[in-house]
């Protein structure tokens, strides 16, 4: 395990570590308390592993790209949390190459500790459901493969079965997302979040009134996140639904596609293969979606999209 190499750091504390412990123990949302992992000072950990200081002998020609570290928040419901490979509440443990761990991709755990990211990314976040493969790891791998970052930090926040009304400002899920994103950004030196990846809406397809209200609720959510994270131009990449729990899928999809906000991108998941439950994306579909999200991010930031391989 990643932490086994860090036992010598357990006794080192920085000024805000006690407050982080306290805030974590009383965090709101559907994230029930878990067994405490060793407390790793976030700033120290990131400076050592995610943001290493180049050795004195490092070339002066090291590019800005090679030094770049990016933070991405993963939010929404089950298809963002990941159900790829899950059947009858069991995950098949198949991890495709595009989702395999690498020291260059970290995740913020439910205990606010940084660790090497691995599937299922949301295992300690969406704890009331069985998690499998989601789009987060293939997204991060594709961005790395494009040469646009030296390392990536993922902040998983998605919880299955949640409607957009449960993500409004002041709700436990919203406040948890903001706190986790703020802690991650502060640990990274205050550079902010590169983007929020949002896949949600299946639960809003059951009732017409929820589907019809989706657009206004989503717009309010985007504005509130930008305000509370102190990033007025924060990029948000949303996924247009591939499925839903009810019959008003098209109403929600229309609302998603009609949103007209700066720095809001929509990636359409319609047509991606679903699990037998006809609700959740398969593992291969999650890999493809991750590549689509990465291509969208790189395209928006005018990066090398040609280096992204999107599965057909």
From TrEMBL:
A single MF term (Gene Ontology): hydrolase activity
Domain Sialate O-acetylesterase intervals: 69-298
Keyword annotations from UniProtKB, A to Z: Hydrolase
Organism in which the protein naturally occurs: Apostasia shenzhenica
Gene3D superfamilies associated with the record: SGNH hydrolase
Protein's UniProt keywords contain Membrane: no
Keyword Hydrolase (UniProt): yes
Designated name of the protein: Putative carbohydrate esterase
Top-level taxonomic group: Eukaryota
SUPFAM superfamilies: SGNH hydrolase
């Amino acid at each position: 395990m990643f932490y086994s190499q860090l036992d010598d750091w357990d006794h080192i504390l920085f000024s805000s570590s006690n407050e982080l412990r306290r805030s974590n123990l009383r965090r709101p949302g559907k994230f029930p308390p878990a067994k405490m992992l060793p407390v790793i000072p976030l700033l120290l950990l990131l400076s050592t592993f995610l943001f290493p200081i180049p050795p004195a002998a490092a070339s002066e020609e090291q590019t800005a790209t090679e030094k770049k570290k990016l933070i991405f928040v993963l939010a929404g419901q089950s298809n963002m949390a990941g159900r790829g490979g899950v059947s009858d509440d069991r995950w098949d443990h198949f991890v495709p190459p595009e989702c395999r761990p690498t020291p260059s991709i970290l995740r913020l755990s439910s205990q606010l500790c940084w660790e090497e990211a691995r599937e299922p990314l949301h295992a300690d976040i969406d704890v009331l459901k069985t998690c499998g493969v989601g789009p987060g790891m293939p997204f991060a791998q594709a961005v790395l493969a494009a040469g646009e970052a030296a390392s990536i930090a993922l902040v998983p926040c998605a919880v299955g079965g949640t409607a957009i009304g449960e993500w409004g400002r002041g709700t436990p899920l919203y406040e948890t997302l903001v706190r986790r994103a703020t802690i991650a950004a502060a640990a990274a030196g205050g550079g902010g979040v590169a983007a929020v990846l949002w896949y949600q809406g299946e639960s809003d397809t059951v009732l017409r009134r929820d589907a019809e209200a989706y657009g206004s609720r989503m717009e309010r959510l985007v504005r509130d996140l930008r305000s509370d994270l102190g990033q007025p131009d924060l990029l948000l990449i949303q996924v247009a639904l591939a499925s839903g729990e009810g019959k008003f899928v098209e109403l929600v999809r229309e609302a998603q596609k009609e949103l007209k906000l700066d720095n809001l991108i929509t990636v359409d998941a319609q047509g991606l293969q679903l699990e037998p439950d006809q609700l959740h994306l398969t593992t291969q579909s999650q890999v493809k979606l991750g590549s689509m999200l990465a291509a969208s991010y790189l395209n928006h930031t005018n990066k090398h999209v040609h280096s992204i391989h999107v599965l057909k």
